[in-house]
Amino acid sequence: MSTPSTPTFRTIDDLPADSRVLVRLDLNSPVEDGEPQDNRRFERHARTVRELADAGHRVVLMAHQGRPGRDDFTSLSGHASILADHVGRDVDFVADTYGEEALAAIEALEAGGVLLLENTRMCDEELPEEPPADKAATEFVRTLAPRFDAYVNDAYSAAHRKHASLVGFPLALPAYAGRVMETEYEANTAIARKEFDGPVTMVVGGTKATDVIGVMDALGDRVDRFLLGGVAGELFLRAAGHPVGHDLEGTDLFDDQWEANHGTVESVLEARGEAIHLASDLAYEGDDGERAEVAVAEIDEKTDAYLDVGSGTVDDYEPLIRESDAVFVKGALGVFEDERFADGTVGVLEAIAETDCFSVVGGGDTSRAIGMYGLDEDDFSHVSIAGGAYIRALTGEPLPAIELLRRADDAGA
Ligand SMILES: Nc1ncnc2c1ncn2[C@@H]1O[C@H](COP(=O)(O)OP(=O)(O)O)[C@@H](O)[C@H]1O
Ligand SMILES: O=C(OP(=O)(O)O)[C@H](O)COP(=O)(O)O
Known about the structure:
This is Phosphoglycerate kinase. By secondary structure, the protein is of the alpha/beta class. It has helices at residues 40-54, 77-87, 100-108, 132-136, 139-144, 164-172, 179-193, 209-219, 230-239, 256-272, 311-322, 343-354, 368-372, 388-395, 400-410, and strands at residues 20-24, 31-32, 35-36, 58-62, 92-93, 114-116, 150-153, 175-177, 200-204, 225-228, 276-277, 281-285, 291-295, 308-309, 326-330, 358-362, 382-383.
């Protein structure tokens, strides 16, 4: 797997004393009943925040949650208290991104203080993806940047997005890498450089289906086989002619967007058909509220929402995992947060944990299944809090926010 050139980041060790720092974290989390759920992202980012506060800097945090229109698009007020528990310090929260209230709270912050701003995606200029110079010219960046001495990017897992908080600020302020950025970059770059003697397998699931299709294409022959499940798997089953695929709240993959996407899915299926393994059975909620399963070959009408791969599929996938030299996981095979639909995800993770193959589990949501179902993180070679960013790193695709950290460093900005 080819890799981008190794950046020599400036890190938080290089920050001038008593800096006012604007820090981008990735606290994007699963949301249940409107509340963010604790996960590895909080624990890992807490280290960066604690070090900055302990050093006496004034620490202002930016992060996003969900996507506009989806159920998980919420305020960050709940995130502040979870983060505070992990940091072991107060984390103040202000329900504003760069308006009067936010500016007053930033101004009032004392040395060693920590303040979390509101969800960056509530600011119109954060999205959509645009060139860094355009993002640097937004009111959002031009208003906040002069209030700080430095920008720290710790959000490796969002570094594939060209959003204002990720690519605008490094053009406006001296930019530094946080601890998560450093460690994830090093681990994922080393993984991308690894050569494997035996079969390389990638388990692909989750909900960010259009994201992973492009990556599957870009990985080319570096991955010998893909084991599919989740919403991504349903897209491929649909392309193979099976009437499956119900859209989640705020998504439109199987209706209007199907017109735009089906050509790509079909061409990936055609080009890599032999490498792509699709579910042979699926699970859904039966009339009695229990898990029920159906063979894919027997589905002749689109009636149910499928929430997991079936037990026959897990039986098909297990031996393929056991004979692999390396296994990469991106996305869950089912809605594992509900125990009834955890069998696919947990079955595959257990099979990986039992072998001594090289293994990486990625994704803010997916990596959460390890702790939830009593698996041991040490049974995997690397558990990344990044999903989309880590699989792009495997293809050698540069991550725009990281390229800017490096350029800022080269320029001595
Ligand atoms: N068939 C399915 N229907 C709905 N959601 C699913 C399905 N399969 C998996 N998921 C959901 O996918 C989520 C993980 O995928 P995603 O958000 O794409 O990945 P990550 O954040 O781990 O990179 C899980 O929270 C799981 O509930
Ligand atoms: O959770 C994230 O990505 P991931 O689900 O691929 O790990 C990042 O926060 C990016 O979020 P986005 O895919 O809504 O831009």
